[in-house]
Amino acid sequence: MTKDFGKLALEQAKKYKGKLKITSKLTIENKEDLSIAYTPGVAEVSKLVAADRKLAWDYTIKSNAVAVISDGSAVLGLGNIGPEAALPVMEGKAILFKEFGGVDAYPLVLDTQNPREVINIVKNIAPGFGGINLEDIAAPNCFEIEDSLQNLGIPVFHDDQHGTAIVVMAAVINASKVLGKHLGSLKVVINGAGAAGNAIAHLLACRDRAGNSLDKRLCVPVGEIVVLDSQGIIYQGRSNLDKYKKALAEFTNPRRIGGSLKEALRGADVFIGVSKANVLDPSWIAEMNPSPIVFAMANPIPEIDPAEALKAEVAIVGTGRSDYPNQINNVLAFPGIFRGALDSRARRITTGMKLAAALALAGFTKKPTREKILTSALDRQVVKVVAKAVRQEV
């Protein structure tokens, strides 16, 4: 019998009033303990850091602290539900940081969706953190916010973009390996041109956000990418494209086809859904090449039910959910990425780090199968592998 995870989550949230608490690294049992932890002893630490701010990395929580920041504008598959409703998700993210990466993460939800205000807030809280994880911020604001924060001197990483892209790339690599398909011959359809879809397209094309091609000795681009937004296929010359979608059109859809998802799927090898529930009709899978790959990653309800996809003769099916096989989820990436970045005191997350993380994640599963293209999110060793790959790129 399938468990009602929504009901169980509600019961747990009410019982514990959230998922997080603060615990002390110190024990305070007497006046001496108090004098060292607080006044007068703490003043010496403050004076030391005042003389050299970089020492905050050695004498405060900064070296292991990440802010998980959301404006509530694009929460999971729930949309613009606001900061208070985003808080349970940010709490969940924070406990995953701690549980898998040993990172002290703090959920911070903002009562503004003005990108300039978000940027200003993040700049002003940055001194207390070793990294910033942007979360569930809608496109195109998320692009402007992340780009504007790259010179803070600490990593700023929008996980919905890059964490998703890293795990998807690893999944595509291993699924292709299982089916004997070459990456360079794949036609990939990405349904969704927001934060995740944009980043996935760039990484699968082996391009950074500035449009530069990555070293093809390290990164094999897929053969063709077609991206769709809510208005249909994106192509050069289509009206109503913002600057980010125009940039996508420059390197995707070389044949400049238009139309709907059904048209896009003709001759496709891979469907990647980062959009909304139940948008992929099982009958359209017949338009795809033999042994198609379907990654239906909308949460909480995927673009197609995995059972229906398998009935339609999909060779490999993945979703973002924990209760289905082949989970393609950011939790495989972000704890290790931040662990590696914090340990090496990286000033930013580079495209090279993202690529290294994707290749390390793919390579971690030595013998992928149709039912297990990536390791389980519960595998504690994957964080170490991803973190090492990131550290080597600093």
List keywords for this structure.
394 residues, alpha/beta, Rossmann fold, 4-stranded parallel sheet, 10 strands
Tally the helices: what do you get? Answer: 15
Average predicted local confidence, pLDDT: 95
Q: What percent of residues adopt helix (DSSP H or I)?
A: 25-40%
Strand content: 5-15%
Number of domains: 2
Q: At CATH's second level, what is the architecture of the largest domain?
A: 3-Layer(aba) Sandwich
Oligomerization status of the protein chains? single chain
CATH superfamily of the largest domain: NAD(P)-binding Rossmann-like Domain
Backbone structural class: alpha/beta
Can you tell me the CATH class of the largest domain? Alpha Beta
Stretches with pLDDT under 50, minimum 5 residues: none
What shape does the CA trace take? globular
Largest sheet: 6 strands, mixed
Number of strands: 10
CATH topology of the largest domain: Rossmann fold
Q: Give, in spatial order, the strands making up the sheet with the most strands.
A: 7-6-5-8-9-10
Distance from N terminus to C terminus (CA atoms, Å) equals: 47 Å
The radius of gyration is: 22 Å
Which H/E pattern describes the elements? Answer: HHHHEHEHEHEHEHEEHHEEHEHHH
Structure explained in plain terms:
The chain is of the alpha/beta class and 394 residues long. It has two domains: 5-154, Rossmann fold, CATH 3.40.50; 159-394, NAD(P)-binding Rossmann-like Domain (Rossmann fold), CATH 3.40.50.720. The chain has helices at 5-16, 31-37, 42-51, 56-59, 83-101, 115-125, 141-148, 159-179, 195-204, 243-251, 261-264, 306-311, 334-343, 351-364, 381-392; strands spanning 65-70, 104-109, 131-134, 156-158, 187-191, 224-229, 232-233, 270-273, 293-296, 316-319. It has a six-stranded mixed beta sheet. Helix 5 (83-101) crosses helix 13, helix 8 crosses helix 9 (195-204) and helix 8 crosses helix 14. The radius of gyration is 22 Å and the shape is globular. The protein starts with a helix and ends with a helix. The relative contact order is 0.11.
